[in-house]
């Protein structure tokens, strides 16, 4: 493909995406294909000779499009939002166009330096304590990782190395193995699956402690578990607090958990993957209070902040723990930037780095902080509107409502709500997923798409109502 063809293909692809987005509201949110559908449509081997871009683009429409779940449809209400915006798409495209791999400062100074600047912009937008920022005097700083899962894992590994060092300083006769085999981590039973996975990957059992009736891990439950483990000869090491849990968007109280973690010398990591964007709004910032007790904090601009996947923002109070834990040098990696920029490869798992800061920069510049705040407030208002509709019908019960997420059910036996969800799924007009709250089966309704409007919420509610009518007919009139 030569440059001229690239221009044509690229422009046609942008047109295709623009058309897709303009028609997304009219497409059934869920595909109707069966498992294995692609196998019948694709040749069994790669073509021997290259094909035209026109043929390939046609096949995207014929083969790929029918197998897409439309995450950015206003009728998508599953999981949490995954971000999508035109500035971020163009940022991704340009990053691919430059095609550098930012494994060191010299590998592309703009990669590292824009990332440093963006993490400062973001940190200031959230009013993170100064000590977490790259621009502070101290050893703290921010970096972009691929996912919240990676962040939780990387911080667990750093916490492990810190604990080994700390204990060996006091007891030099202890071996690394003696210590590592006894380390233990904690989070609540409401934390994301990735938290438990970090424990599995890092060979540090993750105790999922019972949350209270509001979905929060409390200091007393944590302390109790720590005391029991210490009595068994185990070594408490790492705690993951949640700001915006996956099941119900519950918030742990960092001012409650933090002092216990600090006193017991545990690494406190804060996972705010979804809800973190809301801390840019003054009215929600208080939920982040107590973050000064934490060693690390993370949220995903790729969830609620309009930056396409992947872009997970992580800050640490002392990056030296990461660098010391993950620093593997080679002669071919050294360059001389006089210590004026971080070597981000030591802050992460992989050596190579994508230019994620570019799409973040585009979004921050083209939306501005106010644009992001407006987006968050709009989605919360839509969720509250949905909540009011659920509350207006006696057959339903709102179980939780927080940020852009409402969990609700039909009153009575769980089978009624399961039946409702099944019927709604079969129709494929909207997409919602199940959840659990206080051992009851609930439907999780999240406002996800950037283009969701009040009329889409009405549409979703009508879907629930029409199907509920077949399960629990309305007694009124
Ligand atoms: N933490 C929370 C609270 C989440 O809701 C999620 C995903 O929904 C994650 C972590 C995992 O995010 P990622 O896909 O970036 O690893």
Automatic annotation (TrEMBL):
Gene Ontology CC: cytoplasm
Gene Ontology MF, one: pyridoxal phosphate binding
CDD domains: DOPA_deC_like
UniProt cofactor(s): pyridoxal 5'-phosphate
Post-translational modification N6-(pyridoxal phosphate)lysine, affected residues: 303
BP terms from Gene Ontology: amino acid metabolic process; carboxylic acid metabolic process; catecholamine metabolic process
A matching Pfam family: Pyridoxal_deC
Keyword line: Lyase, Pyridoxal phosphate
Family to which this protein belongs: Belongs to the group II decarboxylase family.
Name the record gives this protein: Aromatic-L-amino-acid decarboxylase
Lineage: Eukaryota, Metazoa, Ecdysozoa, Arthropoda, Hexapoda
